[in-house]
Amino acid sequence: MHLHPPRRTADTRLLSAALELVAERGYRGATTRRIAERAGVAEVTLFRRFKTKARLVAEAVRWATADLGSLAQEPTGDLRTDLVRLARVYNDLIQTRRGLVLRILPELGREPALQKVFREVMETRLGGVFALFQHYQAAGRLEAEPVAAQALAFLGPLFARNLLGEALGLEVPFQPEAYVERYLVGRERRD
Fold first, then answer.
1. Average pLDDT of span 119-147
2. Are the beta carbons of 53 and 25 closer than 8 angstroms?
3. What sections of the sequence does the record tag as coiled-coil (predicted)?
4. Where are the domains of the chain?
5. CATH second-level architecture of 65-191?
6. What pTM, to 2 d.p., does this model score?
7. What secondary structure does DSSP assign to 12-72, as a single string?
8. SS3 for 188?
9. What is the DSSP letter of 167?
């Protein structure tokens, strides 16, 4: 007897289709009709499950960034291990979703619904990352500075490296251990 792998749920197919189409066509070009067609469901299913395109895209971004939020919430006690793990997950997330990010960023200023969604989702996801840096500051392992500044100083270069590499067509190898060591220079407390 041949067993077929279980089909992805309609919700998962809709979330994936929304991300793909926003990456390909932008927010306006990712119509609910196109999203439903790509997901293999009726458009009414999209509206029944998510009510609006903005809600669907918001949920898709939450779904696509879930790993980032959960990773940073549980410090192991080993600063380097946690930062290397964060760097890997964040780098992988950007690598797999860079088309979406490249497409969404310019549209944030033009699409208030998308801007609101993106801000809310990123604040939620970055909250876990901020908590990781706050934990190590409280433990005396990192210099005291605003947590948001410290976290963004860590994430920003990874973000720029990936997006600039994509825009220029460059494949830049990533070495998370070396990246963390460079980041910690001047930030790690050695009391």
1. 88
2. no
3. none
4. 9-60, 65-191
5. Orthogonal Bundle (1.10)
6. 0.74
7. HHHHHHHHHHHHHHHHHHS-HHHHHHHHTS-HHHHHHHHSSHHHHHHHHHHHHTHHHHHHT
8. strand
9. H
Q: Which two tokens stand for residue 68?
A: 């980032």
Question: Which of these CATH numbers, 1.10.3720.10, 3.30.160.250, 1.10.10.60, 3.40.630.30, describes 9-60?
Answer: 1.10.10.60
Contact 22, 104 (CB under 8 A): yes
Identity of the amino acid at 113: A
Tell me what pLDDT residue 68 has: 67
**Quick one: DSSP state of residue 191?**
-
pLDDT tens for 21-79 read 988 888 889 999 999 999 999 999 999 999 999 889 888 888 887 766 666 668 899 99
Rounded Cα distance, 79 and 84, in Å: 9
User: Across the strands, what pairs with 188?
Assistant: 142
Query: Which residues, 6 or more positions from 149, have their beta carbon under 8 angstroms from its beta carbon?
Result: none
